[in-house]
Specification:
This protein has 250 residues and is α+β, with helices and mostly antiparallel strands. It has four helices and 13 strands. A hairpin with a 7-residue loop joins strand 3 and strand 4. It is globular and about 55 Å long.
Length: 250
Amino acid sequence: MRFFWGILFALIIANTAWANNSRTSVILAEVDNLWRGSSSHAIATLKIQTQHYSRTMTLELWSKGKEKSLTKVLKPLREKGTITLKSGNYIYTYLPKTDRTIRLSSGMMMGAWMGSHLTNDDLVKESRLEDDFDAEISFEGKRNGQNIIEFTLLPKEAAAVVWGKIILEVEAERHLPIREIFYDEDMQVSRTFTFTGLKKMAGKIRPSIMHIVPADKPDEFTEFIFETLTLNVPINDSFFNKSALKRHKR
């Protein structure tokens, strides 16, 4: 009889662990896919505030899978037609004033993208939480008057990510992200994303504002404001070819 209860207890523990892992995977996949479909098209405002300057740009963005994305500046006029193309592990910048396309070298990858607090490397190594991190629920309950689930994510050994740890908070009911804190490899906070401005886009309530603050410059920020978002739009792979950049500048 003792043997029977031992087996039953082990099965309960195993099923509970499986259920928790399955629930964690489902929620992280929901967060990963929130702004992604098989492809996407969006219009967004990019605001950048640093100690030395502030900029506001209107962007048009397309993506297909994880490997292909294209961002074109619509405003201001002096930067209109500037394009950033991500194709696999490469990033190209098209500059309409000089009619030149530049492939970013490895030494340029840690430079700021569009003068923001994101790097060019961020675009290439865009990761999926579900695929690249081992995750566990580290808190579940009410915090600051809101029911949340907090995940602690540690990079998988083979994952090509630069972060030592990520803390992700999501709404408990709708699984919408609230805050994401990135730690460097020394486990020091590097930057914090907050997600606000809930509105219906692509048929679902989503945060429309993503606010990024670097830990070492707390008075600076980069902010994406999604004006429109359409998912699963038909786009040919040829749209993301380097040779097509000149056609996209208009």
